[in-house]
């Protein structure tokens, strides 16, 4: 968390960090101007890759959503993603 906070400070961007000590999971609320979006996205990518390098995960208690699907591929590979995709396709074929 300290390294991630330092990354934001170096960019001159405010970000609050809240964490779950029990599972090593943290969330950042990053306040930035639109003109800073590219820098912030690179910084967030760096945070996620850092977590993966430390045997962490790109997920949290809220799942991954569209924003982190590429990180999940990096973390678990393509095979689990394909299984979930097939499962969802089958499930949706039975949905009313």
Automatic annotation (TrEMBL):
InterPro entries: FAD-bd_oxidored_4_C, FAD-linked_Oxase-like_C. Its cofactor is FAD. It comes from the Eukaryota. The keyword NADP does not apply. It holds the Pfam family FAD-oxidase_C. GO terms for biological process: lactate catabolic process. Residues 10-82 form the FAD-binding oxidoreductase/transferase type 4 C-terminal domain. GO terms for cellular component: mitochondrion. Gene3D superfamilies: 3.30.70.2740. PANTHER family: D-LACTATE DEHYDROGENASE, D-LACTATE DEHYDROGENASE, MITOCHONDRIAL-RELATED. Belongs to the FAD-binding oxidoreductase/transferase type 4 family. This is D-lactate dehydrogenase. It comes from Fusarium langsethiae.
